[in-house]
Amino acid sequence: MSTTTRPDDLPQGVSLEDLHGTPALVVDIPACSAVIHLDGAHLTSWVPEGEDDVVWTSPDAVYAEGEAIRGGIPLIGPWFGPGRDGRTSPAHGWLRTARWELVSGEHFHGWADEDADVVHSDSVAITLGLEGADPSGSGITAQAQFVIGADHLQVHLEVTAGSEGLELESALHTYLSVGDVTATRFTGLADSRYLDNLRDLAPTEQQGEPVIDGPVDRVYEVASPVTVHDPVLERDIVVTPHGSSRTVLWNPWSDGAAHMDDMPLDAWRQFVCVETAVNKDGFVSLAPGETHCLKARYEISRA
């Protein structure tokens, strides 16, 4: 694994900059712009050409080594929340607070698919790696790849067990930016089972598609695409998962936001988390040295 983060190793359109006092990779190509912080391998912005930011990041987010950034796409693992035993800390594991290293970066210019009448936009692929950060000493490692373009964003999170087996929970805890979460509608969650984290993980059946009219913290038994319909920003966001077993839907509402120092009181209206996950009873068992890859593809369409 390369441990260098020298600016001259980065592809055209990608630079290493100091943002909020911490190192971040800034993507600025004709197709889009994006920001990935090395702390947590944390993408905090993706703005396709002509679009509003697709992900929401809190204006009060804390940026410091060892701190979790509120918003964007936190990489969660090797456990979710307090872990399956309900007592593991820190919450959501240590992947999101460790400082990752640049492995590679590449800029792909537009190209035509010979087998289909499709022209692919410019995109950048950035890979970050994490070694030597496992506090358990078993040697768990991780790698994250971001493929960033105008028509899609792909995030891959690979977690490799160390010298011991691992009951892995991981997630892409994506904060999607919306005009007003109370007006947002969904496709892909209807008539599925979920665990309700606001009712001690009570098993529940979803009747129709969910509506955000209060705090929501649900782990759906859904591993297929989910579409977020946003009538305020007049766009749809499609989240297509791979390697997942669950989809988490989360919004803290006003009551939850009031207890978060890194979020303005009214900010809960501006996002909804649709998380690609393997967690709770949908965890993945890994043998020593075995790898699991969790992926999500995000696409925008206009009504």
Form type: globular
What's the count of strands?
Answer: 24
What is the CA-atom radius of gyration, in angstroms?
19 Å
**Which runs of at least 5 residues are low in confidence (pLDDT < 50)?**
1-5, 112-119
CATH topology: Beta-galactosidase, Chain A, domain 5
How are the SSEs ordered, and which strands pair?
Blueprint: E1 14-19, E2 22-29, E3 32-37, E4 42-48, E5 75-76, E6 101-108, E7 111-112, E8 119-120, E9 123-130, E10 141-149, E11 153-160, E12 166-168, E13 170-172, E14 175-177, E15 185-187, E16 193-196, E17 202-205, E18 216-220, E19 226-230, E20 235-242, E21 246-251, H1 253-257, E22 271-278, E23 284-286, E24 291-302
Antiparallel strand pairs: 1-2, 2-3, 3-4, 5-13, 6-9, 7-8, 9-10, 10-11, 11-24, 12-23, 13-22, 14-22, 15-19, 16-17, 16-18, 18-21, 19-20, 20-24, 21-22
Enzyme class: isomerase
Pfam families: Aldose_epim
Active site: 173, 275
Write structural notes for this entry.
- With 303 residues, the chain is mainly β.
- It has one domain: Beta-galactosidase, Chain A, domain 5 (Distorted Sandwich).
- The chain is built from 1 helix and 24 strands.
- Strands 5, 13, 14, 16, 17, 18, 21 and 22 form an 8-stranded antiparallel β-sheet that branches.
- β2 and β3 form a beta hairpin.
- The chain is globular and about 55 Å long.
- The chain starts with 13 loop residues before the first strand and ends with a strand.
- The N terminus is likely disordered.
